[in-house]
């Protein structure tokens, strides 16, 4: 059932990944550990259609065959090789592929934030069709927040892990073949999460929030600490550059999960993102068994701008606003070029976990924002921008999210007019089942995305 009217110029698919455990976990369980499930709502000619599927990961296939979970989740304890040999995250930590979805070369790629395997999904059935290694050429893992350059079709990404060289940067061509790869030396294991691209550069992250690999080997746990005397570093690397060509810029210590966008203006790169000035992981003993998990779910951050001059090395940074926001997206068809608008989720500061209680649209030119507070009891998900098929101004189109009620778990797809966020959804499409709160969403434009067998809402 639909309340309101699905716009005729909304055509494509909203897809969202998130954790849904299938079997009893091993070790300490964290909400981040659930098996990846993809929910997709397809829109065309004023109609909507919904399907969902688990990502058939190597771990899940193995578990279903053996009837039990064999790898620990992100809280460990990990069973690392004691001989000092290199191991990748998915070798000792369950890779759930539950984090992101990236549209590339006609397929949806499902990724894991801890840099794992890469799974290709059929966009119409969501069936897992390949453990994607790009023809076997890529001997590195796949970080969740790969960026697809909408102008060239290239996929820009990196692998990171607990062992040297800590980061490998690479570019996949529009044809799905490995085009460039280079190792990047860092001082130790780091926890980068996102990246940004411009037509000529990629910006790599090195934050002072990390763990000691010796402690990891000795205890089996990553003990993550914020080193407040160590600067944030952004590494600007030419798209096909090498380690020697990286220009590093130092900024205020902190952490960033997600960037909005980056672009070039002459020798300057401008980059906007959601900055956490104090990402210390605080465990509250009074929270008992849930304490460790909740410690990783508290978020305090704001929208910030960094500017870097690739010729002179000059730099600037500036807080743009003070709302507690994250899960930020521009029109992703404009990744790498100057954008005026972005769409964020607001996170309440009086709740000790990660939920979204409002949708925020930022105007980066005027510095203003517009907020829509989700009705009491409802929580939203990441809300990508869907361009009107009629074209028009940068914000001419829609913002789509999935909303779930916290008590009865009723779930709906909500469509907002991107130019009038504050007025609330212009259409609410009831979904046939519960959609738990999850991670990242993507808008995949185009009428080729219309499944034949899905249920029509
Ligand atoms: Fe993320």
Small molecules (ligands, ions, cofactors) in the structure:
fe (ii) ion
Report the biggest beta sheet as strand number plus sense, adding barrel if it closes. Answer: 6 strands, antiparallel
The gross shape turns out to be: globular
Work out the number of β strands. 33
Alpha plus pi helix count: 4
Helix content: under 10%
Point out poorly predicted stretches. none
Query: Which value, in Å, is the CA radius of gyration?
Result: 21 Å
Mean of pLDDT: 92
Kindly report how far apart the N and C termini lie. 6 Å
Structural class: mainly beta
Q: Strand portion, in percent?
A: 35-45%
Verbal overview:
The N and C termini lie close together (6 Å). The radius of gyration is 21 Å and the shape is globular. The chain has 457 residues and is mainly β. Strands 1, 27, 28, 29, 30 and 31 form a six-stranded antiparallel sheet that branches. The model has no long low-confidence stretch (mean pLDDT 92).
Give a nutshell description of this structure:
This protein has 457 residues and is mainly beta. The chain is built from four helices and 33 strands. Strands 1, 27, 28, 29, 30 and 31 form a six-stranded antiparallel β-sheet that branches. A five-stranded antiparallel β-sheet has the order 32-2-3-4-33, with no helix packed on it.
């Amino acid at each position: 059932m639909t309340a309101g009217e699905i716009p005729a110029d909304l055509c494509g698919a909203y897809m969202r990944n998130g954790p849904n455990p299938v079997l009893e976990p091993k070790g300490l369980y964290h909400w981040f550990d659930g098996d990846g499930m993809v929910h997709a709502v397809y829109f065309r000619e004023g109609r909507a259609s919904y399907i969902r599927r688990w990502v058939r990961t190597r771990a899940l296939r193995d578990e279903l065959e053996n009837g039990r979970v064999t790898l620990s989740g992100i809280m460990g304890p990990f069973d690392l090789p004691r001989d000092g040999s290199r191991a990748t995250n998915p070798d000792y930590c369950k890779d759930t592929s539950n984090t992101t979805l990236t549209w590339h070369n006609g397929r949806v790629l499902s990724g894991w934030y801890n840099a794992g395997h890469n799974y290709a999904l059929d966009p119409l059935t969501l069936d897992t069709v390949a453990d994607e290694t790009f023809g076997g050429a890529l001997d590195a893992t796949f970080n969740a927040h790969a960026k697809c350059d909408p102008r060239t079709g290239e996929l820009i990404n990196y692998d990171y892990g607990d062992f040297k060289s800590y980061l490998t940067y690479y570019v996949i061509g529009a044809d799905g073949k490995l085009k460039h790869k280079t190792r990047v030396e860092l001082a130790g294991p780091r926890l980068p999460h996102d990246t940004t691209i411009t037509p000529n550069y990629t910006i790599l992250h090195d934050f002072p929030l990390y763990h000691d690999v010796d402690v990891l080997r000795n205890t089996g746990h990553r003990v993550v600490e914020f080193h407040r005397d160590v600067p944030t570093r952004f590494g600007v690397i030419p798209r096909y550059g090498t380690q020697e060509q990286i220009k590093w810029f130092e900024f205020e210590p902190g952490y960033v999960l997600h960037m909005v966008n980056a672009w070039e203006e002459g020798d300057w790169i401008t980059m906007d993102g959601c900055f956490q000035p104090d990402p210390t992981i605080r465990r509250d003993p009074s929270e008992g068994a849930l304490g460790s998990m909740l410690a990783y779910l508290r978020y305090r951050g704001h929208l910030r701008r960094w500017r870097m001059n690739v010729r002179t090395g000059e730099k600037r940074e500036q807080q743009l606003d003070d709302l507690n926001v994250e899960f930020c997206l521009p029109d992703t068809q404009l990744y790498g070029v100057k954008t005026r608008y972005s769409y964020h989720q607001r996170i309440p500061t009086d709740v000790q976990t990660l939920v979204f209680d409002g949708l925020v649209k930022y105007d980066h030119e005027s510095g203003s924002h517009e907020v829509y507070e989700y009705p009491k009891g409802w929580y939203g998900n990441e809300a990508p921008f869907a361009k009107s098929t009629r074209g028009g101004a940068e914000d001419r189109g829609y913002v789509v999210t999935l909303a779930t009620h916290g008590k009865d778990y009723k779930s709906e797809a909500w469509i907002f007019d991107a130019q009038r966020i504050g007025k609330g959804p212009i259409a609410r499409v009831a979904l046939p089942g519960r959609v738990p709160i999850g991670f990242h969403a993507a808008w995949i434009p185009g009428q080729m995305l219309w499944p034949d067998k899905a249920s029509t809402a």
